[in-house]
Amino acid sequence: MFKQSVISLAIATACLTASHTVSAEDVTAEKSVERIAVTGSRIKRQSATASPIQNIDLEALNANGSLSLGDALQELPSVGSSLNGNGSAGSSHGSSSLNLRNLGANRSLVLVNGHRWVNGAGSRGFRDFVDMNTIPQAIIKRVEVLQDGATAIYGADAIAGVVNLYTYDDYEGLEVKTTYGETTKSDRETFNIDILSGVNINDANLMFAASHVDQKPIYTQDRNITAVPLNGLTSATPEGLFFEDNLATVNGLTPSSGGITRNPGKDGNNIDNWRKVNSDDTYNRYYNNYVTGPSERSSLYTQLVMPIGSVNFKAEALYNSRESDQQFSPALSPIRGSRGFVIADDARVNPFGVEFSGSDFKHNAFFMNNGYRVNEQKVETTRFAIGLDGELSNDWSWDSFASWASNKGEFTSNNQMNLDKLALGLRACDTTGIDADVTDLVSGCVPVNIFAPLTDDMVNYINFTGHDKNEASQLDFTANITGSLYELPAGYIGAAFGIEYRKEKGEDTPDSIINSDPRINTYRTTTSSPREGTTGEYDLKEAYAEFSIPLLDDKPLAEYLELSLAVRYSDYSTFGSTTNSKVGLLYTPFEQLTLRANWAEGFRAPSILELFEGERLTYKAVNDPCSTDNNLAGCSGVPTDYSQPFSNVQVTTGGNRQLVPETSKNKTVGLIYESNLIENLSFTLDWYEIEINNTISEFGAQNNLDLCAYQNKNCDTITRDSSGEIIDILDGPVNLNATRVSGIDFVSYYTLQTDFGDWSFNANVSKLNTLTEYKTLSDGSIEQKDLVGTAVSRESYPEWRGTFSSTWKYNGWTANYNLRHIDSTTEQFLGEPRGIGSVTYHNISGGYQFANNLGVKLGVNNLGDKQPPASLTNLNINFDQNTYNPVGRYMYLQLTYSL
Q1: What dihedral do alpha carbons 503, 164, 892, 884 form, nearest 10°?
Q2: From the CB of residue 195, how many other CB atoms can be counted at a distance below 10 Å?
Q3: Who contacts 351 (Cβ-Cβ below 8 Å, separation ≥6)?
Q4: At residue 479, what are phi and psi to the nearest 5 degrees?
Q5: What is residue 228's DSSP assignment?
Q6: β-bridge partners, 743
Q7: Kind of pairing between the strands at 854-861 and 839-849
Q8: 562-583: pLDDT as tens digits
Q9: pLDDT of residue 124
């Protein structure tokens, strides 16, 4: 009887969510279960485990009308800044991630039914974490989040924890759910339809699910927080700023060092319409970008479960398609004389009668007639899996599972420019002095006059569309056996043994034209950033053993005491072998209180991306300290008149084959308490600490700039030209040194039955005590940085995060209130601290279930229309797009029909 109460106690307290928990009826149903399997253990057991677990049921996943698993789970207080659909520059490219404990998505293991899911694709390259948008929410029934290290149970990547998604094991009936929503500003229009159908055929069950989600974008000009970059506008205009010393000889022109520009709307071929550049000649290049990007996802899933004699057979097949895009300003001119660009002294392309060339020639402009640049992604996920399980004698059971999965991504770069064609067009198609074979460029060449708006013929000649392809694939096989070894005075020793084989592959094929060497200019072939392709793979063989050992049962001050042990051996084709262990203790002094503690070793091998990614160029928004003070320690040689012209600078990155694996030590201590004074009140309290050695990460472009400027360290990663302008920052994955994180999780749950309905209340709070990074700098010194309460670009580390929710149910009516709080942080901008305020979101919903199986639900998210707090370190977009919700007040209507 006691062991069943432990189960109910663990479920009633650990199964608390950000918005809702299991109902009282669900808890009662669980009490009749003889043996259960939970995330964090392969043993089917009659008692709770020592590991802290949160269980999120179907009602909780749908509480706020969420149509993405990532959107729903990112609201958990234990989840840090994660990729989502926000932003254009530096965005997720349509993917969604889970960053448990602020340790990164690639240290958070995502499972489906206890099995691994393939890594994402569709960016400029593949990913080294699971894209939550490749898993349709329509097929998921519940989620368990293990907030503890689990390398010994599940293998690598489970350093920060495990998110285990459970599909319907069998389903009978038909359910159709459709949702429509939009903001009170009439944008972010969203439509969804889910169909779930299942039928029993004799002893077999066949299930089918289909889903479609279509979400429209929000534009920067439609939100006050993003309308104008707080870091200022760009020193370039659609008309163009031209810098050329030869202009001094043109009659009627007296150009200053600031160059000349055309009066807006005037004919550029008339030199009387040109004037000196002044401080007002700027442009908001982030107008008409996305605050939140569009996403369209479609999926099909089928599952067959059937007995074959004494063996249960299961087969799964999934297809998921995701399409997304990001919109940017028209291409910024790369034209510089120092890059081999020349504007010929030819009236077809130049009204001034002098040649534009040499190191003094520079052009700052946006090619408006070429259109807004749009990067598009299409990712197709395919997964096939089969499983077998059965019972053996003496209460032993076994299972085996094999899966193959692939994410194939296509990345299309629209409205870029072919810079060799542009260079030839500026020369009025004259090939004199060009040694390379440019026959293909000469064919159809159109003289390009950038002193006036481009004609359609000019645009058609220079416009370029890039096509990249990438793929991540996974082959996985597991076999497990679990049962009881022999009986001790306190109960049976539970055991599980298993093996696993896994093979991971990644391949990235960049566009051949983007990657080709330029033939006329010396800069690059297109305005898209070139990169080397990536091909990599590894496999591993693993074996594990797990034991649960009951030490005491029904003794004074020891109602129950259990020791759990686990060990896993892994042999990598890339790094050799490793062995990792875990020890847990579960102690119940009396029925209302259970204490738990864990110690675990963790291991993460460098990913294919971290090891083998080809060198690539990208752009990141930074603030150059030397632009405001060239007397700083690391700004020697920067001219006194230097002013940073553009916030986005080139960064060179790539894989590092010298990386070594990460190792970790995880500790947790906690309690579960169920009050005997207040009926149906329970809570959990857990402390955790994770220490990672050989942490694999990047310094970050802004961090390198700050280290150089303020401390004169890591300056060798920065390249400037003679004017002081940043040409490139070198950054890539390295074994920095170490990371240490610790904190406290508190979860409470209370239910109340009254004559006016059933009520449930729950709170979920996480406190970040320590988040310290130790980085070995280029001079050998070690930088120690405590990140608690701080914010940097696209990452925030608030001390407190929390949620509270209440649900009311009565005669078919339901109502829900949800609160989400993110604590204040402090950012460093130009060496000075700046506060970022706290944010609290409020969501409400209500619905009614009709007798004819029709359900109606109406909800409002972000009731107060709260916008993100402003940030200066998050250049251009003005807020941390991986932490805060910029959508604003969002209303939705959901209809559900069941048979």
Answers
A1: -80
A2: 16
A3: 268, 269, 270, 271, 451
A4: -145, 135
A5: S
A6: 688, 768
A7: antiparallel
A8: 999 999 999 999 999 999 999 9
A9: 77
